[in-house]
């Protein structure tokens, strides 16, 4: 059983930064891609960023390119999401997810384990 625990969310002013962390356990972390998704109130969950097993390949939602950076530390079983220049529309619950394969993917169906989420609130 894979467990994912997110941390690092909170309240931040527009223009500020946050770094989310996700601690993984339960299977060989370095064999699988990881992803971040988010869900705003009243909206569907959406893709944010993904990273391949080695960290060599990353993809981002088009609207977030240049502001968000995903990274991973396989030695620590951790994945991170650095969020800069935050906007009010970034307010959401952010979820860490573990992929079913090693390849980075934006497809939600390719993730089989999810964390409980961490709230990010950006005040304008």
Essential attributes:
mainly beta; single chain; globular; 4-stranded antiparallel beta sheet; 50% strand; 7-stranded mixed beta sheet; 11 strands; 124 residues
Write a compact overview of the structure shown.
The chain has no helices and eleven strands.
The shape is globular
Rg estimate, integer Å? 13 Å
Q: Strand content of the residues, in percent?
A: over 45%
The major beta sheet can be summarized as:
7 strands, mixed
- Elements, N to C (H/E): EEEEEEEEEEE
Low-confidence stretches: none
Distance between the termini: 40 Å
Number of helices: 0
Mean pLDDT level: 96
How many β-strand stretches? 11
The residue fraction in helices comes out at under 10%
In terms of structural class, how would the helical and strand content be classed? Answer: mainly beta
How would you summarize the topology of this molecule?
Elements: E1 3-7, E2 10-13, E3 18-25, E4 34-39, E5 46-51, E6 58-60, E7 68-73, E8 78-83, E9 92-99, E10 111-114, E11 118-123
Parallel strand pairs: 2-11
Antiparallel strand pairs: 1-3, 3-8, 4-5, 4-9, 5-6, 7-8, 9-10, 9-11
Structure, explained:
- With 124 residues, the protein is mainly β.
- It contains no helices and eleven strands.
- It has strands at residues 3-7, 10-13, 18-25, 34-39, 46-51, 58-60, 68-73, 78-83, 92-99, 111-114, 118-123.
- The strands form two sheets. Strands 2, 4, 5, 6, 9, 10 and 11 form a seven-stranded mixed β-sheet that branches. The protein has a four-stranded antiparallel β-sheet with strand order 1-3-8-7, with no helix packed on it.
- A hairpin with a 4-residue loop joins β7 and β8.
- 31% of the residues are buried.
- The mean pLDDT is 96.
